[in-house]
Amino acid sequence: MSRFIQLHLLVSYPPSNLNRDDTGRPKTAIVGDANRLRISSQSLKRAWRTSDEFEAAMGGHVGVRTKEMGIKIFNALQAKDIDEKKAREWAKLIASQFGKSKSDKKTENNQDLHVEQLVHFSPEEQTAIDALVTEVANSGIAPTEEQLKLLSKPKQAVDIAMFGRMLASSPAFNMEAAVQVAHAITIHKVAVEDDYFTAVDDLNNGDEDSGSAHIGEAGFGAGVFYLYVCINRELLQSNLGDDAELTKQSLHALLNAATKVSPTGKQNSFASRAYAAYVLAEKGDQQPRSLAQAFLKPVTGADMLERAVKELTKRVDNFDSVYGKCAEARESFNVETGEGSLETLITFIAE
Question: How far apart are CA 351 and CA 85, in angstroms?
Answer without folding.
Answer: 54
